């Protein structure tokens, strides 16, 4: 790679511009080659950010500004708003909220943390906000054996979302947006049906709330589509989609109508780092050239099929096998067994991750192929056979 | 530079590690060459972060954890704490607060924004927290003509700080920390005396609050010391010092006793970017080799002396000339005049910045020397002579 860098690229790697004020000359062109070339349908606007937490924090701000401007209509900002916001008080700092889901993870800064409910250690000792928290469906597996139960469970959660919106409005706290992960990752790789997400999107629209999909962990192709929410087949796209991690840079896509009504309302000094967009452009080129999204779908099927087979053979060790693309996981009987399995696997050269309280999750790279799946399944099958 | 990069460096520029889990092999060595080589006295611990806002957000978290652990003593975390924190409620999410100052700027994410009070546009429409806000001294210039008035003004502000801590405790909201900039930058380049900051540090200690100095804008040498708070001559160091901007990476230094009591309590995926530490190591090498801190002190004196001369000649256009090192500024009669002066200067090739509602601020690079000051002063003198 070093031999092919252009002068502009070298400058990008050794300088750190204040991106919002003084972007490199052809930065917008570079965005077309990188982030904008994979923008989710219906979301033509993009902002870059330095990390996943900042992406969600600023997406919340975008949503609150959009909501307030809707309420304001053609009225101007009042003197009272301008003065009260300086001392953290309404009406300038309105009593708005983001609705989130139990088990969700959206980051660790203060705004994000108020929507994160995956592990106590993330939240302990940190003051928070009284924002509504809805239950996330707890599906029973195998899905085909629990169709009716799972439908009821999802309906229960959706009903609770609507109840919370109404209940919070009654106490003058307005739910301006709903944030959700396509697959709850830190919280235990919890899935819901495409139908659940479509209905949730409808509820958001019905109540005038923005619909924010957090693809920080699911985005980038591993689920078999570039964005996991593309599986849902939404008629009306999400309003905002946040990303980070595999995208090399943080940031978010959004609909035109969410564009801030004045400059510097969504801003910080660096807004990420343009050198990461260069890396991302290369990554996207390779993804396309090697057809890696379809590869993830294919290899994921091999992995999932193998895991289902292991589940049938070792039901006392493996349950609730689930996944989309290579974004697979299963449950173990308890925390201790889970951690022991992870350690044994590591000693055999396989790095596995834990999530939730007793799940093991797979997050292989996009070049993970069927034969890697079989390699893993052979090793893991031995581990399970000898597990005491 | 490209010719001298080592293999490790190239790898650092083209990879993006999850720094907290899988740091590059000799990352801790590299920290010694970069951040730790300029650690403020008494603060041997460092965390890197991706931006200034994340640095302050995580510094607040560090302070809240430290405070809660102090309260907890030898008691264990209770089941009630672990459960209540998951739904954003006390006692798990305690009603703690950071005390900040009117006119301060500490970033734009939710926690930071609750301590930012510089411009309404930063805060409008964003829900906030009820945290105490103290007045920052409004000094009269020239300082030597208003010694008594300024002492009284600073005493008034310090008294208000103590009153707020007591008042908030009465309503069960505990001030766990105080955050302050050595020079309020966005808020208008507002200075206070070294004595003010020493007394504020004493108040923090007296009430058991952590003392957090935000050097995001002042750090890196421009004030004539590497850290602006080194001018104060504190007996007991600050507890936490945050940085970003000129340091190429965000992060914070802290005292040993503020070290989190468990891993992953202060954490995110990237924790900044190790390639920026490489750049910082080079920057620090140049600063030392070229004696750029003393240069900033010296060139700053030339700039300030020249500005005082212009103030004497054009008192209807320039007032309240102030500065430390090259971190200088002055007031203009109003917003319109300020913006007009900035535009005329830009058209003559001089980039000036505005801050507060009518100030012009200088933020030259560290290689700005006396002759640059004279070059500027000549141009600006002409501008003022011809200003209509």
Automatic annotation (TrEMBL), chains A, B:
Q: What's the superkingdom here?
A: Eukaryota
Query: Pfam families from the xrefs?
Result: Aminotran_3 (PF00202)
Which reactions is this enzyme annotated as catalysing?
A: 4-aminobutanoate + 2-oxoglutarate = succinate semialdehyde + L-glutamate; (S)-3-amino-2-methylpropanoate + 2-oxoglutarate = 2-methyl-3-oxopropanoate + L-glutamate
* Assigned keywords, A-Z: Aminotransferase, Neurotransmitter degradation, Pyridoxal phosphate, Transferase
Query: What PROSITE patterns does the record tag this protein with?
Result: AA_TRANSFER_CLASS_3
GO MF, one example? metal ion binding
Recorded hits in InterPro entries, A to Z, give: 4NH2But_aminotransferase_euk, Aminotrans_3, Aminotrans_3_PPA_site, PyrdxlP-dep_Trfase, PyrdxlP-dep_Trfase_major, PyrdxlP-dep_Trfase_small
UniProt keyword Membrane, yes or no: no
Give the E.C. number(s): 2.6.1.19, 2.6.1.22
Essential cofactor(s): pyridoxal 5'-phosphate
| A biological process from GO | gamma-aminobutyric acid catabolic process
Instruction: Give the CC-aspect GO terms.
Output: mitochondrial matrix
The protein's job, in short, is:
Catalyzes the conversion of gamma-aminobutyrate and L-beta-aminoisobutyrate to succinate semialdehyde and methylmalonate semialdehyde, respectively. Can also convert delta-aminovalerate and beta-alanine.
PANTHER family cross-referenced by the UniProt entry:
4-AMINOBUTYRATE AMINOTRANSFERASE, MITOCHONDRIAL (PTHR43206:SF1), AMINOTRANSFERASE (PTHR43206)
How does the annotation summarize its subunit structure?
Homodimer; disulfide-linked.
The entry's family comment says: Belongs to the class-III pyridoxal-phosphate-dependent aminotransferase family.
Name of protein:
4-aminobutyrate aminotransferase, mitochondrial
